[in-house]
Amino acid sequence: MRHAAAIVIESETLQAKIVRGETVNHEDLVRVSNVLARLMRDLGVKGAGKPKDDVPDLRTFLASRAAG
Fold first, then answer.
1. What are phi and psi for residue 20, nearest 5 degrees?
2. What is the model's pTM?
3. Residues 6 or more apart from 64 whose CB is under 8 A from it?
4. E runs forming strands in the chain
């Protein structure tokens, strides 16, 4: 479990660097993503799955909040 937590932190660190526009070694990103996917599968953690069709996009949601 600790190994999975460490990989999650590494993945989040790489993603944050991308958001900030910093250079990221894409091979490292792929490697970390693959390791994380395997660990989550082995631990029985399921992903969020596909988005639901009845969930509005952000623009529609905000418009409905402003109107109501």
1. -80, -5
2. 0.62
3. 56
4. none
